[in-house]
Amino acid sequence: MKPLRMQKMKHKTKQIAISDEIDIAKAASNARILAEEAGFKQTEQFMVATAVSELARNIYTYAMKGEITIKIIERKAKRGIEIVAEDYGPGIKDIAQAMKGQFSTSGSLGLGLSGAKRLMDEFIVDTERKRGTKIIVRKWV
Amino acid sequence: MEEKTALPRVAMHIMRGCLVVPVQVELDDKSVIQIQKDILEKLKTTGTKGVIIDVSAVEIIDSFLGKTLSDTARMAAMLGATTVFTGFKPGVAASLIDLDVELGDIQTAMTVEEGLLILKPIVGPQELPEEIEKETDEEGVEAEQIEQIEEGGDETLEDAEDET
Question: Are A111 and B63 inside 8 Å of each other by CB?
């Protein structure tokens, strides 16, 4: 492998609007491609893609509309991938409950967020917002 | 063809007394539900006792897709059929465990061939007419047989579509 920090990376970003069921799969496959570009092994590419699938599903199920932004990131000598999942829906009332995994107000599985957290290295929920939900997840190569 | 060409359908075929379902498309909600319907419909019409769902081409199975697939195996069980999933990729397996999808009761195997061996005692001696024409050689033609599933799948697919 070439030393990564030598070359200035053009930070690739991909935005996917989520408003239809099919956008979930679209976001996931885009995430897989960017994870590959970032240098993740195949097993981890699938895990990143699955996490994105869960985040996109979360948007579609609870807010109907939102956006997934996928970015290759660098921190010091590390390279990774960052996904921002944002919507303007009702928001998550009880984030602690939602993270437990069993919680679901939509009749869906409710495993999504806790699963996405386990699949990634970092998981941040922006709780400052009055409306909607913003979740940032990262995974390092 | 019918107007719903936008939705890729999975070709399924009877092989050695088992319903073999090679999932060659990347799954989304609609297609996984369609696969579930098609399998149950096929089980009802053929009375097949064994099902193999081959997911070796699938890269992403999230909680919903995983649950729908495992539900399909449970529904098949209610119709008297045993399901074996074959070809889970390591990344898919790791993801499903992280997602905590309830999979404790599903049977798996590495390859379709292994899956057929698991199901052999369940489906019993084969006397279904479908496979007499399909079966050329008992052993060593696995790859060819898989080809046949894909090619021969269109007929079975149309059958299924007629009924929906």
Answer: yes
